[in-house]
Amino acid sequence: MIGGFLAVVGIVAAFLGILTPDALVALLDRVAPVLGFVVGLTIVADLSAEAGLFSWLAGVAARFSLGRVWVLWLLVVVLALLCTVFLSLDTTAVLLTPVVVLVARRVGASPLPFALTTVWLANCASLFLPVSNLTNLLAVHALGSPAPLTYAALVLPAAVVCALVPVVAVGIRYRHELAARFPAASVEAAPDRTLFLVSAIVVVLLVPALVSGVEVWIPAAIGAAVLVVAFAIKRRSALRIGLVPWGTLLFAAGLFLVVAAAQALGLAQLIGSAVGTGTSFGDLLRLSGGAALSANVVNNLPAYLALEPVGGSSVRIIAILIGVNVGCIVTPWASLATLLWHGRLQALDVHVPWGRYALAGLGLVVVMLPLSILLLSLAP
């Protein structure tokens, strides 16, 4: 509903001439590959989950955790990191959340440390590669379209800090729960070995393909096509119209249109006066803090698009990314991944009070933003 409303506002802006035809074409040229990547990767992730790949990975983690909850938790940390970095934060929120909750219940452990680890790493570990977050894919244009590994080198120190802080926080807060033990668990076989193998091969090949420098929508589309063909042959019932994330597409398209219209009306000048123009530690922290505040007021996607024109340099663009990616863990609507995560938890009857979640997220942001910006400002 929100996406539809935003899309209507954007269409009205186009009819009124606020968004010119040239501006619309430029916007489409920029966001179409991003949305194409979202569609392709969502189909890959959903069909891989249908084939039992993610459940098998979680089962392997339980099997090799030696009956210790803290070892299982660390394996979940690794799985969440890999999933977020290479398959995007939304994939982690949508697919990994129910898997880790069910595995935690299977071994008699509290699901809360596993659930919080998943959502915090989904957001905070989404700096590493362009494919890790939609905001990163948008920022690649402003950064001069660097190769994925070149981009990773730019953000690496800040990204490492932002991934470590939530892990340390969960480890300290839930140290007693994580110290428990459980009987050895077995790994369940995949329901269809052929589909499982095809899904595993597609996901494994996607990892190098997404960091190869090829436009990311291309390997995502190829992987999706391969899995669609495999499921059409083996399990046609799994192919449904809902595999395409229509709601996400409408929401993102509406946001892009509205922010583009706001930019045409002078939003950049208004924001620029609030976040400054320098590159010192104080200037970058002010910019990143403003980005975090904007993300929590609206959402991290429009917050990035609104702030990008006041970037002006690679270091300032990265500061904006740190703010919108890492700072969006306070309010539930700041990140689409957080809303998707909460929806999965509700379906599993796991309740996380928003007030407690917001306070914990605020505490993490207060620690992560200054540390990551300090490393960014000290980088050569």
TrEMBL record:
A Pfam family matched by this chain, by name?
CitMHS
Q: Does the keyword Transmembrane helix apply?
A: yes
The transmembrane segments are 6-27, 34-58, 70-103, 112-131, 151-174, 194-211, 217-234, 246-272, 317-342, 354-379
Which UniProt keywords are listed? Answer: Arsenical resistance, Cell membrane, Membrane, Transmembrane, Transmembrane helix, Transport
Q: What's the protein's topology in the membrane?
A: Multi-pass membrane protein
The entry's localization annotation reads: Cell membrane
In this chain the Citrate transporter-like domain maps to 8-309
UniProt cross-references to PANTHER family, sorted A to Z: TRANSPORTER ARSB-RELATED
Q: Which family does it belong to?
A: Belongs to the CitM (TC 2.A.11) transporter family.
Q: What is the protein name stated in its UniProt record?
A: Arsenic transport integral membrane protein ArsB
Write down the species: Frondihabitans cladoniiphilus
What taxonomic classification does the UniProt entry list for its organism? Bacteria, Bacillati, Actinomycetota, Actinomycetes, Micrococcales
